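Anyone have tokens for FeoB-associated Cys-rich membrane protein? Sequence:
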Amino acid sequence: MVQTIIVILLFAAALFYVGRLVYKSFTAKKSCGSNCKCGVDFSNIKP
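Reply: yep, here.
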């Protein structure tokens, strides 16, 4: 009985971990990650 509970808990933890990885891969990131300079502050640079 105890072994079954341990296996079920490990399986649930693995499902949670994989679900979290999938969720993080589909959520939007704060920065675009390309070379567009969208996160750079140009206010201190004189034209």
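The two ends are 73 Å apart (CA to CA).
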